[in-house]
Amino acid sequence: MSSPSEESVRRNSESENGEAETSEHDPHFDPIVSLPIVEIHTNEEDEEELVKIRARLYRYDTGDHEWKERGTGDIKLLRHRVNNTVRVVMRRDKTLKVCANHFITPDIRMNVHCGSDKAFNWSVFADYADETCKQELLAIKFGNPQNAELWKAKFAEAQEIVRTKCSLYTQDQSSDDESSFTRSEDTDTPEPKNVDKPPEEEYKKEDLKEDGVVLKLKELKVDSEKTE
User: Fold this and answer.
1) Spatial distance between the Cα atoms of 34 and 104, rounded to a whole number of angstroms
2) Where is this chain compositionally biased, Basic and acidic residues type (predicted)?
3) Cα–Cα 20 to 30 A to 32, which of 24, 49, 165, 181?
């Protein structure tokens, strides 16, 4: 018969061997449905990021006449590499739902909101955050004045890019220059135009000429009679 100590040692060794066998066993199951990897396009592939700042966005509700929070997240200025258009894009945290999506135009004015050094407001003619074109009055609040000043400077820089490099606005400027040039040409002294005179005046002039000839002939006759 084995002693109790030997039997306990044997049981411990058997348990260790069993654990080693179970740990080495790795069953593999093929999935019933295979899900392919899907690439998600954000429509930002052809754009470069000018600035990205965390902020909180508000919109003015004209029905309730009050400001309503639209979302908190990173607001970005994205410049198109080919067209040189710049748009404002902001997505909410976690859900990544778009809460601001509009193009920057040179006539947008960035105003200080409620006298705060951390907030601005501006009016947008066409915002596509809700996948429909809407006119919105937006306000944004940053965490500190430094981020607010950075946003204001980058927004002005984006407006300058659009005004000087975007084909939509450079074509308008060239057309205005051409129209001003043509207007300046039109203001030059015009060439004299031949005005057709009515036939009555022409007949009068011919009659006067004939009368003058007749008078001269009469004078010649009188002079000839006197000499005789």
Assistant:
1) 44
2) 183-208
3) 24
Q: What is the strand order of the sheet 98-103 is part of?
A: 98-103, 86-92, 66-80, 47-61, 134-142, 119-127, 111-112
Distances (CA, A) of 49 to 6, 71, 76, 89, 156: 73, 20, 7, 10, 15
Spatial CB neighbours of 224, under 8 Å, sequence gap ≥ 6: none
CA distances from 137 to 61, 142, 183, 206 (A): 8, 17, 39, 79
**Phi, psi for 65 (deg, rounded to 5):** 55, 55
Task: Provide the residue type at 127 as one letter.
Answer: D
Give the distance from CA 199 to its chain's centroid: 64
Please tell me the distance from the alpha carbon of residue 219 to that of residue 213, in angstroms, as a whole number: 10
- Residue 174: CB atoms within 10 A of its CB come to 10
**Rounded CA separation 111/107 (Å):** 12
Phi, psi values for residue 80, rounded to 5°: -75, 135
pLDDT of residue 181: 47
Say whether pLDDT at 19 is over 80: no
Q: Which residue in the block uniquely carries the two structure tokens 């204001």?
A: 152
Our CA angle for 201, 204, 210, nearest 5°, is 145
The pair of three-digit structure tokens given for residue 104, joined into one six-digit string: 């920057």
Which contacts qualify for 168-173: CB closer than 8 Å, 24 or more apart? Answer: 168/85, 169/106
pTM for the model stands at 0.61
